[in-house]
Structure formats: C-alpha cells, structure tokens
Amino acid sequence: MEQVVQPAWRMMLRDKLQNTWLADQYRKGRNFKRQVMWRSEGEAILLQNYFRIHGKPLNLANPETFTEKLFWRMIMWNRGHMPARFTRLTDKYAVRSYVANTVGEKHLIKLLWHGDDPHAIPFDRLPEEYVIKSTHACEQVIIVQGHVNRHTIIETVSSWLGKSYYWSGREYQYYNIKPGIVIEEYLRDQDGNPPLDYKFYCFNGIPDLIIVRNHTHDIHPIFDTSWNLLDLVLSNCNVRPLIPKPVNLEEMLGIAAKLSAGFGFVRVDLYNVNGRVYFGELTFTPAAGNFKYSPESWDLKHGEKWKLELDMGAKP
User: Is the Cα torsion angle 92, 97, 99, 100 positive or negative in sign?
Assistant: First the structure.
C-alpha cells in the first residue's frame, strides 16, 4: 500500500492552526461539503485511487479484472446501488445472526458485552482477558490482558464512536452502520498466542484461495484450497512461510462456502483454535482496493470468476 507523505510545511501549518478559529471554520466547511457532495466527491476519490494504484483509468463501463470489479463495486455502492444486506453483514454485531443461522452459533466467538456507551462497559464483570472492537470500522481493536486502564479505554472507544469509517476509504457498506462496541472472548492457540487469521477469497460460494495472517501482520502466505503455496502477493508484505495445513481444512472450506453463498465475491475470515473454527468477519472490499496483484495475471483470473450480477443490484 502506497503511503502518502505530507510536506513538512503543511504539517507544521496544520499543527499551528489546529486549535484556532480558522481550523474550526475549515472543519465546518468540510462537514458541509461532505453533507452536500459526498457521493460525487466519493466517486472522484475512488477513481483517483484506482489510477494512483494501477497507473491507468478505471474501465468502469466493462470491468474485467478483479481490481476493476472491486472499484466498480465501491463506486456503484457509493452511487446508491447497494442492497441493504451488505450493511448488516459488515456490522460486526449484526452479522452474528447471519452466521448463527447459516453455520451455527458454535462458530461465533463468545460475546461478553455489546453497546454504544463506553461508560457502560462492565469492567468489573469482565474476565482478565478480552477483546474490544468497534462494530462499524476496521482495525479498531483493543486487546486487554490483566491490568485495565479504564479511562484510556473509554477515551479511545469514545473517539471510535464519534467517527464514520466510510470517510477513510469511501466503502459505502460502512456509511449507515450505527457506531457500537462488541467485547468478545480472547482466543489463544495451543501455544498461548493469538490465533492465525485465515482469509478465504470466495467467488459465487466457492472458496478459491486462503491468505494466512498472524496477529502482527508480518507474514502473508497464500494457499490454494489443496494447501499448495502460491506464487502470489496481495499486499506490501511478501513474507511467505509454509504454514502447516490445518487438520480440519475441509471443515473450514465448508464453512466459508456456506457463508459466501449468493455473493459474487466476499472474503470470509476464520480462526482455527485447537480444531474449533470461529468466524472473524465478512469483507466485501478488501483494503478499500489499495493493493495490486503480483503477478498481475491473477487479477484477470479472479476477475473472470467474479459474477457481478449475483450481488450488485446494478449491472455494468
């Protein structure tokens, strides 16, 4: 993922004006602009992002590759062509009912608490270890082990609840999620570490490949469904160790297939803890499209497997 570095003078000016009336007027103007022009502005930003990443304009009229279809999806959804179910399935609390009805409650991580008031978190009734997540965003996670700084947690969670994740990458499925918090059981593998995250790329209900990430995100091997290590990279991390094949891989593939049925594309994230499979999340626009296939031939190969008409509510 390309990182945009702001010029030093701009950062100094921003810091100097941060708490002035000029900054307040700027924020008011930006918020007004968002309210009036957010759809057109969002589409323009998505088109710019595609060009920045791939060095060519997006083929919006006839998308063929996976990344073209991914940006097509984001733009069509941003225009208002997104079925409401994608908001529910992106909400980390609301999706639990879909998982329970589709593959069973046994695949849900134990829920310890949920709500929208961080001051109501029942710290005294929680175990020593647990995980706090926002329901309406990505990468907003607090892992609690032992001592709890309640003030810091409440302050952090409050900042999460005050922001819409939509503005980060213009992924419309986040736009109407009511901000909230879930607290779940903390999972450990047999060595006492956080479990590996198995990310299944699924097309039309058929798992195609599995990305394996650890909790520090410093590995990125990709396997096919027979657990052959693929010569494929989808992130800025190209560390590809040969992770042992899960004994219950067929069960994981079956769960991913059931959860992805009826979608042209979705990434199904699962955990495997001592032979028990837990649901992580459903991801419809991975990394907001901020990646490239290497080698690029995989981009077209996956694009051919993605049938847009299955889940779009609009056709190219």
Answer: positive
